[in-house]
Amino acid sequence: MQLTKSCILLVLLILLEWSDTTAAEDSNAVDFREDEDGTVYIKSGVGRDIVIQPGYGGRVIINGHLQVCETNDCRAKLGSRKNPARSCKAILEDDPFAESGVYYIITKPYVTKVYCYMDYIPGCGGGGWTTLMKTDGHNSTFKYTSALWGNKEPYNMPGGQSGVDHKETKLPTYWTMPFNSLCLGMKTSGNTSEPNWIRLKYRARSLYSVIADGRYRSTSLGRMAWKSLIPDSSLQLNCNKEGFNAVRVDRHSVRIGIISNQENDCDTPDSRIGFGGAGTSCRTDGTVSTGNTADCDADNGKKSIKTHGYILAQ
């Protein structure tokens, strides 16, 4: 009988010790739990902190998005739906590791989903380029006389949520985005390589502000820079009137680009490279709305090259 009581006491002591140990472990434990919707919870014991401490130069990444926290307030990532940005450049300055993709950009009085080019673009430079427009030279959507150049109406906004492709678009950034430079790109159909790009340094309140009124505004890139947009392109040697709304009535015109002539004046230009083109003089192809058309002693012969165009701002 005495042995039995001793055994019972021993068992009770073991149970009490196990209970105390378990309680201590529970108070120190960190609980990981996942809900049916995929939400993950991390819960520490009572009075215990959870510290996430990246190394020098490191960041805390939550589902690919940087969270910047101050005390108990947490600011959503710049460029997210809850914290739209002024431009793609502002997003990249806030997070140098931001990748190319769709972000939320302020286009007062609205917010617009815009594709941002965050990588270095050969011919244009460092990233942070905001999409304004994408054009297709096979279509008349953005020909010189299109009302889209002169109004504040968007066109195919979902097309502005992707990068280099064949989708035409005009985003509200066309009339709301101030810029110091434009990045202009062109590529021909079926060409699997990246577009050829040139950087046009020009300061304006918006692209709308330098095009919509139809006034000519000059630039000084030079004819070879414009020709570099399109392999095997052709221009006449003279005139070389370039910029915004480069026009010779009843001859050739471009909203952004260059017109040229074989004579020592700009009275009868018969060639052009650019966006928003028109003109059929000297038997040239008037249907090329973006690209290159040329004849009459052009430096690389007669051409009719329709391209896809990309207009970005920074």
Short synopsis of the structure:
By secondary structure, the chain is of the alpha+beta class. It has helices at 2-28, 88-94, 173-176, 207-211, 223-227, and strands at 30-34, 40-44, 61-62, 65-66, 68-70, 73-75, 101-107, 110-117, 129-136, 169-170, 179-188, 196-204, 217-218, 238-247, 253-261, 271-275, 290-294, 303-313. One of its GO terms (cellular component) is extracellular space.
Question: Can you walk through the features of this model?
Answer:
Keywords: Disulfide bond, Signal. InterPro entries: Fibrinogen-like_C. Residues 1-23 form the signal peptide. This protein has helices at residues 2-28, 88-94, 173-176, 207-211, 223-227; strands at residues 30-34, 40-44, 61-62, 65-66, 68-70, 73-75, 101-107, 110-117, 129-136, 169-170, 179-188, 196-204, 217-218, 238-247, 253-261, 271-275, 290-294, 303-313. With 314 residues, the protein is α+β, with helices and mostly antiparallel strands. Among the domains are: 88-138 and 147-214, no CATH class; 218-305, no CATH class. The strands form four sheets. Strands 7, 8, 9, 10, 11, 12, 13, 14, 15, 16, 17 and 18 form a twelve-stranded antiparallel sheet that branches. The protein has a two-stranded antiparallel sheet with strand order 1-2. The model is unreliable at 1-16 (pLDDT under 50).
